[in-house]
Each structure stands twice: as structure tokens, then as C-alpha cells.
Amino acid sequence: MGIRRSTMEDVARRAGVSRITAYRRFATKDALVEQVVRREFRRYFDQFLIDIQDAESAADRVVLGFASALRAIRHNPLIGGLMTVEPDVLVPSMVSDGGHTLATVQRFVAGQLRREQHAGHVSEDVDVELVAELMTRVSASFLVTPSHVIDLDDDEQVREVARRFLVPMLRPK
């Protein structure tokens, strides 16, 4: 029924706990939404690693990872559904939580890029923190703002964007 119309009492009832127990765990409904969004992103990280495991190069992993990210999050029943129905409620939980959700994603991407550096697939001259930040922000932008240029349901178009604009960030300065 959406975030706006749901109450903590509704959540507690569905979870089979008392309202007091729900409030002990989550001080506010916003805190609950923030934690649920983070949980769903952690689930996505696991899927991401599966999606890129057969890629042959760092560039291929960036391309597949970008497409995988947009597809997985947009089609996630909870996050994707809420982005469609109540973007004005969900988006703030992703971007105005002091940046924690985006920082979590950025750290994950930076970790993947560091692994590529240590394996010799990405130059040591690449600033992985900055590249991860830019990749995360590009992905977030596509997730929260509809595109009239790129069909985000067309994996090939999404992969082409990654090839043209994200993969070049892996090259040294």
C-alpha cells in the first residue's frame, strides 16, 4: 500500500511483533525505510557479483555491472515498485540520509575497482574512489530521474552507455 499510507503499526502487525517492538528497532518510519532500502542494496551487491563473474575483462565487468545494477534495482519488487509509485518518498531515503546509502554503494564499487587494480586489470594511476563516486552518481541519476534519451529497459542501450562513458574512466590520466 506504499510508504505514505503505511504506519509502523501496519508494519508491526505484518511482522508479527508489537508496535513497541517495531519502534525499539526503528525509531521512525523513515529509519525503517532507510534500513529496508540498504538491505535491498546489499542483496543487489550479492547478485552483482554473480552477474559479473563470467566477464573476461575489467571493462566487461563495468559494462555488465552497470546494466545489472539498473536492471536489478529498477525491477526489485520493493525499491523499483516504490520508485514508480512513490518516488518522492523513496528518493529522499536514498539521497538525504546524510549520503549513507550512496556512500555504501560507492564503497562497494570502489572495492571492486581496487580488486581490479590489485589484479593488474586497472592502472594504479586510476583514482578508484573518484571513479566509484562518479559511477555511483551516474547510476543513481538514472534510477531516480526518468530518461527520455535512453530506454533503461533496453540492456543493450544501457551497456552502450557504460562502454562509451564509464569504461573510459578506467584509463589512467
Q: How would you describe what is shown here?
A:
The protein is mostly helical and 173 residues long. It has one domain (29-170): Orthogonal Bundle (Tetracycline Repressor, domain 2). It has helices spanning 8-15, 19-25, 29-52, 58-74, 79-85, 87-95, 100-118, 128-144, 155-166. The chain is elongated and about 55 Å long. The mean pLDDT is 86.
Mean pLDDT: 86
Query: Helical percent range?
Result: 55-70%
Q: What's the alpha carbon Rg, rounded to whole Å?
A: 18 Å
CATH architecture: Orthogonal Bundle
- Domain unit count: 1
Shape assignment: elongated
- Helices and strands, in order, run as HHHHHHHHH
Largest sheet: none
Approximately what portion of the residues adopt beta-strand conformation?
under 5%
Number of strands: 0
Give me the number of helical elements. Answer: 9
The CATH class label is Mainly Alpha
> Span from first to last CA?
49 Å
| The CATH fourth-level homologous superfamily | Tetracycline Repressor, domain 2
Q: What low-confidence regions span 5 or more consecutive residues with pLDDT below 50? A: none
Determine the structural class based on helices, strands and strand pairing.
mainly alpha
Fold blueprint:
Elements: H1 8-15, H2 19-25, H3 29-52, H4 58-74, H5 79-85, H6 87-95, H7 100-118, H8 128-144, H9 155-166
Please give a handful of descriptors for the protein shown.
elongated; single chain; 9 helices; Tetracycline Repressor, domain 2; 173 residues; 69% helix; mainly alpha
